[in-house]
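subagent[fold] <- orchestrator: predict structure for attached chain, return tokens only, no commentary.
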Amino acid sequence: MEFLSSNQHTLVYNVLSFGTAVMFGAFVYFLTQIKSVREEYRSGVAVSAVVVGIAGYHYYRIWSGFSVGEMNEGYRYADWLITVPLLIVELLIVLGVASALRKNLMWKLVPASILMIGLGYPGEISNSTGTKWVFWIMAIIPFVYILYVLYGQLQEAQKRETGAVATSIKNATLVLLSTWCVYPIAYLFPIFDAESGTLETLRQVGYTFADITAKGLYGLMILSIAKARSTESKSSS
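subagent[fold] -> orchestrator:
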């Protein structure tokens, strides 16, 4: 990261520090909220805690490395390789998808997410523009497939729900779509100017705030759905 200016370096350092703090803070918060929802939804909230806990560890490693002049993107991809499948699992749990359908979707979406991350990494670390484009195109195929399926499940869930549950699902849909679209855009920045400190700063800041939103804020959306469902179940019992 020698090509970053002093101000750019400080900004990335502070953003990585902020990301680390948010992830660990969210981890503690989600742990305290597990018993605030009905038993059938607790595993979804627990998965949210696991996701931000894993992300907090990897952000600490990225932040620590960056402080001594190193940027190991492998930590990001190791984090995504674990947490993205878990994000899919936690959503399917709280959406109330039937057990058989949930298992079927998991068998499709989890391998697709692993394929997406695995295909993205070679392009991320390559210095060749052509290689970056090839792996970006390959990774975008499972990316679009995952978003398409999850969006469909969110829409179906929203149709069959009312009140607070429907509102929470709508919010989760907005978070999912707006956040996930940041990643493939930020991925392309080095293609346009590999030596630009400005673009690299934007890429690191973009990745970090997308992660905070996709894990922390998304986890809050999952918790909101679980709480709304729990309240609804109490009212009907």
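orchestrator: received. Logging for downstream: The mean pLDDT is 88. The two ends are 59 Å apart (CA to CA).
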